[in-house]
Amino acid sequence: MPSISVIIPAYHAEKFIVRTVNSLLQQSLIDWEAIIVSDDSFDYQNFLASKNITDKRLRFGSTSKIGSGPSNARNIALDMAKSNIIATLDADDTFDKRKLAMMIPMAKEHGIAISNIRVIDNETNVELSNLQYHPRTRLIEYNEILAATSYGHSIIVYKKPNKNLYWPTKVKRCEDLLFMTQIYDYYGKAFYLQHKLHNYYFHKNSLCHTQNAANNFFRDRNKIIYMLRKDGGNIQNYHIKDMLIDFLQAGITISNPLDNKEFNYKNYISELRKLCPFLPNRKNWKIAK
């Protein structure tokens, strides 16, 4: 059995998947498997083979649909996984070569592990300022997780809980935030490594920055709030649940599509701090290079 299963949802990922897979092939820890699940009916196995990338540790699946959402693809990969330690990797991001070796022990001990990230301009490959919260290596609280994963909540490495937890399929935005919260709620703790072990690629023309994306985030944030208020969203700790609702509500207020404003990440973080007083103290939230 591999030490860890890396699950990768792939949707129109031909431009990036080679870079992503190469980051796995360069890992210092070699006992891993990666499960790439196509959500666009594209044959990623043959595509990678055409680029001279074949490896027994690479496995492939499909949602048999087009654009069903990252949650559906991740859940299929999760059912295919042979390890009880899971890492999530988006098809356009990469891992630092030390990531798996450093994070597996922390996930085994604490249940969930998160690391600092590099923010990289996809066009120039230049590292950008990291505006999210990045504490020292230690156990962190839930409010710190919210601040430390603001670029993306799917960068976790975790140990499978004894109960079945799957990514929510009713929403396609902020689904990773809800799932991460459910995992944290189950274990009641998380370990943070200050090392930059995940490379997040920033796309200037990303669909996430369009008006249509603002509408989708607005809709799905409201859906998750409704789920949390209706049945708890599979979260037992009321304090965590209320914090998540307030965090989502702040996102709705800041990025209301009716305002018709162009998304600016720096402004988003600034407003988020004002609307969520439970987030870490401003003086400990420094911009990293």
Please explain how this structure is put together.
- The chain is α/β, with parallel strands linked by helices and 289 residues long.
- Among the domains are: 1-94, Spore Coat Polysaccharide Biosynthesis Protein SpsA, Chain A; 209-273.
- 37% of the residues lie in helices and 19% in strands.
- It contains nine helices and ten strands.
- Strands 1, 2, 3, 4, 5, 6, 7, 8, 9 and 10 form a ten-stranded mixed β-sheet that branches.
- Strand 2 (32-38), helix 2 and strand 3 form a beta-alpha-beta unit.
- The chain is globular and about 50 Å long.
Write the layout of secondary structure elements.
Elements lengths: L3 E7 L6 H9 L6 E7 L5 H7 L7 E5 L7 H11 L4 E4 L5 E2 L3 H12 L1 E10 L5 E2 L9 E3 L1 H7 L8 E3 L15 H13 L2 E13 L8 H21 L6 H17 L10 H11 L14
Parallel strand pairs: 1-2, 1-4, 2-3, 6-10
Antiparallel strand pairs: 4-9, 5-10, 6-7, 6-9, 8-10
Helix pairs in contact: 7-8, 8-9
